[in-house]
Design a protein that fits this description.
By secondary structure, the protein is of the alpha+beta class. The chain contains five helices and six strands.
Length: 223
């Protein structure tokens, strides 16, 4: 009598990446290690593991859900197709994959016990881990962020102007104090010289003037 079982695992990839890889022939082959022929069309025939698995797409919801009919070369003619339903949900470490496998022949328990784990889940984890490592090695280093200039306060220009005015005034005061005295003009020099002469003459002691002797008249007295 057929039975149904459910398995879960976490894959280090996004739901979209797993969905695309599962339905891509080349990616499915690389992911599992066996040749696969997959399609993204509902109703299209699919196969995996070098023809060991065959089936058909029954329902496809991008990034969320894959439903396929599934039978192996070990199914007898009286066995109907089994059905796999893959649900993809985002998780902290990637994607939580939930697999429900229904209408499985009762005597074929290997799929639940180790078949899916060894032939799909473990190879898928290794495949996506290797892809992430390769992407990290080939990606260019991120450029250092440019420093953001600090905004200049609006009052800065006024302060700078006041400072410049104070500096200008201080420079003018220094220049006035340090400026040499202008040379006196020739007229001023002469007036200064006369003033010195007059002051010197006034300070000198008065000289005794000698009265000139009266000349005797050559004329004789009248007799």
């Amino acid at each position: 009598m057929p039975y149904t079982f459910t398995l879960t695992t976490t894959i280090p990839a996004s739901p979209e990446e797993i969905y695309q890889a599962w339905l891509d022939s080349l990616a499915h082959s690389e992911m599992t290690g066996g040749a696969a022929n997959m399609s993204e069309q509902i109703g299209a025939a699919v196969s995996a593991w070098d023809g060991y698995i065959s089936g058909r797409n029954l329902e496809l919801v991008p990034g969320e859900r894959i439903v396929q009919s599934w039978r192996t070369s070990e199914f007898a003619d009286e066995h109907g197709d089994s059905v796999i339903t893959i649900l993809l949900e985002e998780a902290d470490e990637g994607t939580l994959l939930t697999l429900e496998h229904s209408n499985v022949p009762d005597e074929q328990r290997s799929y639940e016990e180790a078949g899916w784990q060894e032939n799909y889940f473990e190879p898928m984890v290794a495949y996506f881990t290797e892809r992430k490592r390769g992407a990290a090695e080939t990606s260019p280093p991120k450029a250092a962020p440019k420093p953001v200039p600090k905004p200049v306060p609006k009052t800065a220009p006024k302060r700078a102007t006041k400072t410049a005015r104070h500096a200008k005034r201080a420079a003018g005061a220094k220049s006035k104090r340090a400026a040499p005295q202008a040379k006196a003009s020739p007229n001023k020099r002469r007036s200064k010289g006369r003033g010195k002469t007059r002051r010197a003459a006034a300070a000198a002691p008065p000289r005794n003037r000698v009265k000139p002797a009266k000349r005797k008249s050559g004329r004789g007295k009248r007799r």
